[in-house]
Amino acid sequence: MEQIIIERVIPADIKKLQEIGRTTFSEAFASVNSEENMKDYLEKGFSDEKLKGELTNQDSQFYFALLDGEIVGYLKINIGQAQTEKLNPDALEIERIYLLKAFYGQKVGQLLYQKAIDIAIEMQASYVWLGVWEENYRALRFYEKNGFTPFSKHKFWLGDDEQTDLLMKKELADTNQLKAS
After folding, report:
1. Which of 37, 69, 105, 134 has the fewest other C-beta atoms within 10 Å?
2. What is the largest CA-CA distance in the chain?
3. How does DSSP classify residue 141?
């Protein structure tokens, strides 16, 4: 595989972000959710207004994974008040890591994940956390492999379907101490 480039998303990239967001979410979840609920979520969750607000929020960052100039996945992280759960202002949330299905198992997700960890270490976050649907077994295995452990749950609405996300975290104290020495 060619080298993957990780590049920060800027507000002018809103249409590209909207397209990759809708495509990757559909590829991941359309087969296990109703068409109505998917349509509702994709329209609201990736609307121009919502994405513009997220892209201009200083506590949120998006990154594209690019292969030969084509977007094959993306990452969204939140700090401070942008975190979807107000757990710890010194923590970093990985809100999304999504890839085109054709790139599953090709280490693109690992590169996006590492970008989030590098940012968390740089900001000296105490831990990194995320929410993952309890039935997204592939993602659960990925995060467990990377040292995340469950610590709580929260509800996630996909249209009118109430789903449960497991909240998982990875402590970074040891990593930050290693970097400081």
Report:
1. 69
2. 53
3. H
Tokens of 92: 């970093």
pTM for this model (two decimals): 0.92
What phi and psi values does residue 89 have, to the nearest 5 degrees?
-65, -15
Close Cβ partners of 134 (under 8 Å, ≥ 6 residues apart): 140, 153, 163, 164, 165, 166
CA 94, 99, 102: angle at the middle one, nearest 5?
A: 160
The residues near 20 (Cβ < 8 Å, ≥ 6 apart) are 64, 71, 73, 74, 98, 100
Question: Catalytic annotation on 113?
Answer: no
Half-sphere exposure of 36 (CA within 13 A, CB side): 3
* Per-residue buried b or exposed e for 23-58, using 16+ beta carbons within 10 Å of the residue's own CB: bbbbebbeeebeeebbebbbeeebeeeebeebbeee
